[in-house]
Amino acid sequence: MTEEQKAPDVRQLGLEPSDRDGHTLEELSDYLEAGRLPVDPSIEGSPGCQLALDALERLQGLGGQLIEADAAARPEVDDSWVDRILSGIALDARAGRRIPFDESDPSVDFGITEGAVRGLIRSAENAVPGIMVGRSTLDGDVTVVGEPIRIAIEVNAIYGESIPTAVARLRAEIAERLHRQTDLTVTSIDVTVRDIQRISSAAEETS
Amino acid sequence: MSTTALPGLAERIEAAVLATAGVRNVYRAGSLVSNIVGEGAVAIGISRSDEALVAVRTDDDGVEVEASLGVEYSANALELLRDVRAAIDKVLADDGLGPVEIALTIAYVHPREASSD
Fold this sequence. Notes:
The complex is a heterodimer. By secondary structure, chain A is of the alpha+beta class. Helices cover 42% and strands 20% of the residues of chain A. In chain A, a hairpin with an 8-residue loop joins β3 and β4. Chain B has a single domain, classed as Alpha-Beta Plaits. Helix content of chain B is 34%, strand content 26%. Chain B contains 3 helices and 4 strands, in the order αβαββαβ. Chain B has helices at 9-18, 32-43, 77-94, and strands at 23-27, 55-59, 62-71, 100-109. In chain B, strands 1, 2, 3 and 4 form a 4-stranded mixed beta sheet that branches. The A-B interface holds A 18-19, 21-22, 41-42, 45-47, 50-51, 54, 95, 98, 101-103, 107-113, 115-116, 119-120, 123, 126-127, 177, 180-183 and B 25, 27-28, 32, 35-36, 39, 49, 53, 68, 70, 73, 76-78, 81, 85, 99-109, 111-114.
């Protein structure tokens, strides 16, 4: 694996840093690699940066094997799965719409950002071995309590894991996390498997 | 960020919010534009970096409080927000202030695996 293949090249993605309080994914990746030291208050004080750091940390944790597999993938594979995951991370970091809670007291206004909800969805991958969440979208008017909302998620799977089992577990994890942390009326959680990575064969090809 | 005329009120509210079980962070309340302006103001020295992150506005109609939070996964979000509201109410009641309007937004939920639960 060359030096360039060790980490996804976030500079080529053209992602705007505005939703991460001025920080690029490249800066956040470097910060993570430095052990989040010295502490940067502008990063640690930004919810968008925190969402991106969580996702980058998981990506790097699994990344060694998977990025190697991606580098060894056949050239006719169009967009790399790493790019798609990074695009999802960039989307997560945007605050997006404000999603209200069902609170009857008129003197209070409680809400959660769409970005925080996407972060919750992505974090469900922690509980499901062999699955990495790419992009997630909330279809429906989330700004109105009680409106039916469809969750659409693209994921990447590792070959060898049972995909139906992993997807069912991912759905259950997401439903539980959203139920505890939001008042969304989720009508469906649709999961699309975009890529299947065969790590062992990729490693053999590169050896 | 605070627009209150009462010295130290926003700081005391922020401390009360942070002391609420399940709250781990208070982020600068407001829009991205206002945050960039706020960071610029800190950079050129016309605003302090230790200024309260909670926005408090007082006028003849009462008090408005706005805060943006990072919370533990372990808490039920709505119950946690009610606890935060009660903590803010207590600070304002101690100062004899009211009526109160409170806007709280969860901007980040720490992953369950990184939370204390």
